[in-house]
Design goal:
alpha/beta; Rossmann fold; six-stranded parallel β-sheet; 12 strands; about 25% helix; binds thymidine-5'-phosphate
Length: about 180
């Protein structure tokens, strides 16, 4: 059995995480894999059953509600998971199980919340990954590389207590550099 491999693609919103995930899925598919492609049920921005980028590229995906559902439904030795932040802490043991069973796992998700805090479980997965691609967005104000993002509306509650109200795109969030986010 192969030893498993974990690749984390992360950064703020609008950094190209899903585009990078789709590129990796295509590369591995060309090499003969038939990856399980998974996204979380809370994110309805694409057509149901898609992962989608902010500029409209899409790829079919299986929509699941929990990290346990990933384990229950996995069929391939390559597993790609988008919007991984929505699975929360249970994703850590689920990914460990996929790796223990020799799988190649690619996880794309936010490493930072809209109020600038580490967004579990991605930071924990970054720590144990074989490869981490931390991407940057462009600051909405000055165009500098942007590691942060902010909602353009108030009242979204606690960023670590995820609710459907917090799901959104460029209509409700903007990317910001360290200077303009004011941290
Ligand atoms: P994206 O990384 O594909 O752009 O999507 C991130 C999703 O996460 C989007 O639906 C907004 C949501 N979100 C949160 O739930 N909490 C947050 O703290 C942030 C920044 C985004
Ligand atoms: Mg995305």
């Amino acid at each position: 059995m192969s030893p498993g491999h974990l690749h984390v693609i992360t950064g703020p919103m609008f950094a190209g995480k899903t585009a990078a995930l789709i590129a990796e899925i295509r590369r591995l598919t060309e090499l003969g894999a038939s990856p399980d492609i998974i996204t979380h049920a809370i994110d309805h921005r694409g057509r149901i059953g898609d992962i989608s980028t902010h500029d409209g590229a899409t790829h079919d995906a299986r929509v699941v509600a929990t990290a346990d559902d990933i384990i229950r439904t996995v069929t391939s030795d390559v597993v790609a998971i988008d919007e991984a932040q929505f699975f929360g802490q249970p994703l850590v043991p689920a990914v460990a199980h996929l790796l223990d069973t020799g799988r190649r796992v690619i996880v794309a998700g936010l490493c930072v919340t809209f109020d600038g805090r580490p967004f579990d479980p991605i930071p924990e997965l970054m720590a144990v990954a074989d490869r981490v691609d931390k991407l940057m967005a462009r600051c909405d104000v000055c165009g500098a590389p942007a590691p942060y993002h902010r909602p353009t509306q108030t009242g979204l509650g606690d960023a670590l207590d995820i609710t459907p109200d917090q799901v959104g795109g460029s209509d409700t969030y903007q990317a910001l550099c360290r200077h303009h986010v004011g941290i």
